[in-house]
Write a structure and sequence with these properties.
- The protein is α/β, with parallel strands linked by helices.
- 43% of the residues lie in helices and 17% in strands.
- A seven-stranded mixed β-sheet has the order 3-2-1-4-5-7-6, sandwiched between helices.
- The protein is globular, with a radius of gyration of 21 Å.
- S-adenosylmethionine binds next to strand 4.
C-alpha cells in the first residue's frame, strides 16, 4: 500500500502553518485531502507531459478530418468519445506506465480489442513492438488505426475458438475495457469460455515470464466477474482485483 505521505510531502506539510487552525483530527483530514489533491494534479500533469510528444506526432490535419466526420456518429458512451485524443492518450500513457512499460527494454505486446489503437501507439512510443487484434466493424476505429499505423489483425475473438497463431510469443497480452467476452449481452462468457480463453493465451501466446493483463467492464449486476470466473483465473495462477485480471505464463519445468 502507498504510504499516506512521502518524506518530501511531510517536509512540505511541516512548512505549511496548519497548526492551531483546527483540531488534530480535522487537520489530519485536511492534510489527507491536500495530499490526495496534489497527487491527482501532479499525476494528471505528468501524464499530460508524457502524452504531449505522442500527440505531437499525429497528423493533426488528418485527425481533424476524422473528428469532423465521426464526432456526432456515436455519442458518449459510444465510440465518438475516443475522439478526445488528448484525454485518451493520457489514459493509454497511464496504462502503459502502470505496467512499467516506460522503463523496460523492448518487448512484444498484443492488445486485444484495441479500438482506436491508443495503447499500442503508446507502447510503440516507449520502444516496444505492439500488435493489436480487433473487429473491423467500426469505421472510426478503422480510420484511427490507419492514421496511427497500428499493426492490427482483424479477428473476432469468440468463445471456444483459439486466437490466431503468431510468429512470436508475447511478453504482455492485454485487453482494456474488455468487450470480447460479450460484455453486457445475454451470452456473456461464463467459466468454461474464460477457461478456454486463458488456457489458449497461456499455452500459445505468452512468452516465458509473460503476463495476461485484462481490465474488465462491470456487468449488469455491477460485478466484473462472478466468484466462479474468479476461480478460473485463480486456478491459472492469476489474480483479479477490481476488474483487473493478471495471469502469468506457466512456470517452466
Ligand atoms: C470499449 S472498446 C475498448 C477499446 C480499447 N481497448 C480502449 O480501452 O480504448 C471495446 C473494443 O473491443 C472490440 N471487440 C468487441 N468484441 C470483440 C470481439 N469479439 N473480438 C475482438 N474485438 C472485439 C471492439 O471492436 C472495441 O474495439
Amino acid at each position: 500500500m502507498q504510504p499516506l505521505a512521502t518524506a518530501a510531502e511531510i517536509a512540505l506539510l511541516n512548512r505549511l502553518n496548519l497548526r492551531g487552525r483546527s483540531s488534530d483530527a480535522k487537520r489530519r483530514g485536511l492534510v489527507g485531502d491536500w495530499i490526495e489533491r496534489s497527487r491527482a494534479v501532479w499525476g494528471a500533469w505528468r501524464l499530460d507531459r508524457c502524452a504531449a510528444p505522442i500527440l505531437g506526432g499525429i497528423d493533426a490535419r488528418r485527425f481533424e478530418s476524422i473528428r469532423a466526420r465521426f464526432r456526432e456518429a456515436d455519442p458518449d458512451p459510444g465510440s465518438s468519445k475516443y475522439l478526445d485524443l488528448r484525454a485518451w492518450l493520457r489514459v493509454a500513457v497511464g496504462r502503459a506506465r502502470g505496467l512499467g512499460l516506460h522503463r523496460r527494454p523492448a518487448c512484444d505486446l498484443l492488445d486485444l480489442g484495441s479500438g482506436c489503437g491508443y495503447f499500442p501507439l503508446v507502447c510503440r512510443h516507449y520502444g516496444h513492438r505492439a500488435r493489436a487484434l480487433d473487429l473491423d466493424t467500426n469505421a472510426l476505429y478503422n480510420e484511427m488505426i490507419e492514421l496511427l499505423e497500428i499493426d492490427r489483425g482483424v479477428v473476432a475473438i469468440e468463445a471456444g475458438v483459439p486466437l490466431p497463431a503468431f510468429d512470436t510469443r508475447f511478453d504482455w497480452v492485454t485487453g482494456f475495457m474488455v468487450c470480447f467476452n460479450n460484455h453486457d449481452r445475454e451470452d456473456l462468457w461464463g467459466p468454461p469460455e474464460w477457461e478456454f480463453f486463458v488456457r489458449d493465451v497461456v499455452d500459445h501466446l505468452l512468452a516465458p515470464g509473460g503476463q495476461l493483463h485484462l481490465e474488465l467492464n462491470p456487468e449488469r449486476d455491477g460485478r466484473f466477474a462472478t466468484p466462479e470466473i474468479e476461480r478460473v483465473f485463480a486456478r491459472a495462477g492469476g489474480t483479479v482485483r477490481g476488474g483487473v485480471v493478471r495471469v502469468p505464463a506457466r512456470a517452466r519445468g
